[in-house]
Amino acid sequence: MTPAPSPTGAPRPRQTSSVVVEGLSCELAGRKVLSNIGFAVEEGAILGILGPNGSGKTTLLRCLAGLQAPSAGRIRIDGADPRALRPAELARRLALQAQDSTAALGFTVRDVVGMGRLVHRRSVFSGNGAEDRAIVEDALTRLELEALAERPVEQLSGGERQRVMIARALAQRPRILLLDEPTNHLDIQHRFAVLDLVRSLGITVVMTLHDIELAARWCDRLLLLKDGRLQADAVPEEALTAERLTAVYRVAAAVDRRPCDGRLRIDLSPLAPRRLDHA
Ligand SMILES: Nc1ncnc2c1ncn2[C@@H]1O[C@H](COP(=O)(O)OP(=O)(O)OP(=O)(O)O)[C@@H](O)[C@H]1O
Question: ipTM more than 0.95?
Answer without folding.
Answer: yes
